[in-house]
């Protein structure tokens, strides 16, 4: 067990599975059956998925659900969501319908700038470095022409390169800090390729720069990589209505609800323990759409949470106010997304999801995703400040518990009916199943 295996990546898929089953499952064929059960019978499709990553042994399914009735800037959308958590799609749909009847969501992209950096060490005269940088900057741009040509034709490319002195933080540490416009591409490959080209040219040119002494000539490149912190790739989405319209069939007192809602948001603005859970709810909506549309949810997560901490304390991503009887709830969030490149033309379900969204541009997708986050947060806060989260949550969770106990269709029907008038708890469901079965 504690021995390493060499050459694992060169084993065939079957050999890899055999090794796993023999090493970790005591040769148990059942483990092999579970793995194989998720293989797709369409060999071409399976091969496509096998080749997305390395050492693939099977597929890991996530449900793809849809939330209809999202009215965004006057256009109706049905939003695809890939997520394993029950209640999320239901909550999004409910919030979408609620705001559909109140003018819908307004969304706007504030900026679309992305960032990449070449991190390097230089020990020498700082003014000489600045002079060298100004001299070499056109050459850095020239050296990337073959990469930027097409992007430039479409109106994107490298926006600027700055030399940044970071020696106050680490002795000898400088950066080439570059900004990019990558249009409908998320742009990770584009940015990283440009950065590596900058690094190469910068290092090479330094070696022959006449102003540099021998030590200065040897610039040490540490690394070249895009940043997933994208505070200037920002989108805003909002909903607003007169307070009295916040009630549905007189189910709540609208004034009381509006005040409690704003207070709930304010709490997440000042209390990090609450802010993290509050934002987790936002990300339920964001990640599900990001995943369904083939975007990198880890990049989005990292960037969003860094943004939530931009003022030195982790805070709410959403904001709410009441002004002259008008309730307004909004989100401002950095989202670096793509609708071309990457998985977007490879994964059939990603393609389908983008088609469902009327083949959006990256800017349109930023708006849709921000709206999904705002809607999710609205639904969560509405439940939390009125009935409490567990009522709706446990109803949805009921199905998970029933599946866990392999309830038959007939048992499910009886128990769903039973729990329409009874509180769902794990033990109450178990008890009810046992009662039916005994
Ligand atoms: C659960 O996935 C998300 C919530 O906890 C979010 C929140 O508390 O705002 C309901």
Please tally the β strands and state the result. Answer: 10
The CATH architecture designation of the largest domain is Alpha-Beta Complex
- What count of helical segments does DSSP give? 16
What would CATH call the homologous superfamily of the largest domain? 3-hydroxy-3-methylglutaryl-coenzyme A Reductase, Chain A, domain 2
Which small compounds were modeled alongside the protein? Answer: (R)-mevalonate
* Main sheet attributes: strand count, strand direction, barrel closure: 4 strands, antiparallel
Structural class: alpha+beta
Query: Which sequence of SSEs, written as H and E, runs from N to C?
Result: HHHEEHEEHHEEHHEEHHHEEHHHHH
Structural domain tally:
4
Task: Please tell me how large the radius of gyration is.
Answer: 27 Å
CATH class of the largest domain: Alpha Beta
Distance between the termini: 44 Å
**Reading side by side through the largest sheet, how are the strands ordered?**
3-8-10-9
Which percent bin holds the helix content?
40-55%
**Which ranges are low-confidence, i.e. pLDDT below 50, for 5 or more consecutive residues?**
none
Q: What's the shape? A: globular
Catalytic activity: (R)-mevalonate + 2 NAD(+) + CoA = (3S)-3-hydroxy-3-methylglutaryl-CoA + 2 NADH + 2 H(+)
InterPro entries: HMG_CoA_Rdtase, HMG_CoA_Rdtase_bac-typ, HMG_CoA_Rdtase_cat_sf, HMG_CoA_Rdtase_NAD(P)-bd_sf, HMG_CoA_Rdtase_sub-bd_dom_sf
Protein name: 3-hydroxy-3-methylglutaryl coenzyme A reductase
GO molecular function: hydroxymethylglutaryl-CoA reductase (NADH) activity; hydroxymethylglutaryl-CoA reductase (NADPH) activity
